[in-house]
Known about the structure:
Blueprint: H1 2-19, H2 24-27, H3 30-50, H4 62-91, H5 98-137, E1 143-150, H6 157-166, E2 170-175, E3 193-197, H7 203-209, E4 213-218, H8 225-230, H9 232-252, E5 257-263, E6 269-274, H10 285-297, E7 306-312, E8 314-316, H11 327-337, E9 340-343, E10 349-354, H12 355-367, H13 370-373, E11 376-380, E12 386-388, H14 389-399, E13 404-407, E14 416-419, H15 422-428, H16 436-448
Amino acid sequence: TVDIAAIWVGFLIGWVVTHGGDTSIAAGQAGGLLALAICLSAVCFLGYAAAGLYTASHGSPLLAKLGRVFLVTLGFFAIAGVIWVLASQLMGLTIGSPATTVQLFLVAFLISTALVMLARVASLALRSDSLDENNAGRRQPGDENKVLVVGGCGYIGSILVEKLLDQGKEVLVLDAMHFGDEPLSDVAGHNRLTIIKEDFRNVEALTRALDGVGTVIHLGGLVGDPACALDPDLTIDVNLTATKLVGEIAKACGVKRFIFASSCSVYGACDDIVDEQSAFNPQSLYARTKVASEAVLAPLNDSDFAVTCLRFATVYGISGRARFDLVVNLLCAKAVRDGVITVFGPDQWRPFVHVEDVARAIETVLEAPSDAVAGEAFNVGSDAQNYTLGKAAKLIKRQVPDAEITLDENFTDTRNYHVSFAKIQTQLGFEPTWTLERGISQVIAVVRSN
């Protein structure tokens, strides 16, 4: 359409140049001229189509296209001249003297050629802008040294972020900061740290944060059985739906590695020692969201997007954002403040791991070759730190002798799992550096110091 219009704009300008805009000459033969115009339009389209101007690759050189436009337009006007001569003889059409007609065709050829070439240049410019936008949408694989920590202002994240900065990595933290920004106060203002105060369910903020990122560590979510039980719909939205979204967007943005914080609570209740191949038996909504999250992330794993799920043992210890809803931390605080260590189910097994060792385990996965951790799940902890809750309570009492251990017989907790950590030790060489006794001492000292 543009090409045909360019031809007839050329003829109109040529008419103005040669006839001063006088239409009286053509008024009496309008029907014949209209029929001729339709015929020439068809010839114009067929000529450009035959020359491949509508089917050639967009990648063809511009100068080659312009040269082809010149030759095809020249050929079209030569054919148009022949058709005009025949029309003049057969239909008696005339638009002036032969000299005026030649001048009209010459001007029309020059104007039309210039307009058709200009259309090709404009088309290339528009496609280039569109290509730039498309390339921006299809981001190149990110730099693995640029790490996004979702939930980086939390219990584990506040330690992990500092460790990543010490390794020389560029770190972005995406966190709604419901508990304030104090957990990262020690590294605030670091030139390689960017803090984005947003809910990770905000797609725009998440996509912006992922720009150039090569590694995502997803620690965000509602944590713990009581908190997750308060609002099941919210828990599913935050812990499952949003996790799937983070994984999909991360992959689309060119992220290479994705580490997801899962939990050993996925094993739930089992009388045998469980490992990564054991069947899931979640006993709470929190645990079920972890099982489901691992399931929705697994299909995303491929050669360009390595997904690793880390199933943390029950965490204890002090970090920048201390938690006292965790069993060891809570029992230590109760022992110091109330002089009572209340145990629900003293014979239940739990694996334990210090929060700093959790951060070290994440570092270990980052340092491992991608193919060694892609599509894998690892229990994070140590075999030596599998304890019954009763034994853990006795370790606390050793350090707070005045506290009394009491058993609550009115509360039943169905969870019971003794976990093997052989896989992460043998395949990645990870061993925790903290012992439960040392961690208990740390928590007690902090509580006593206010």
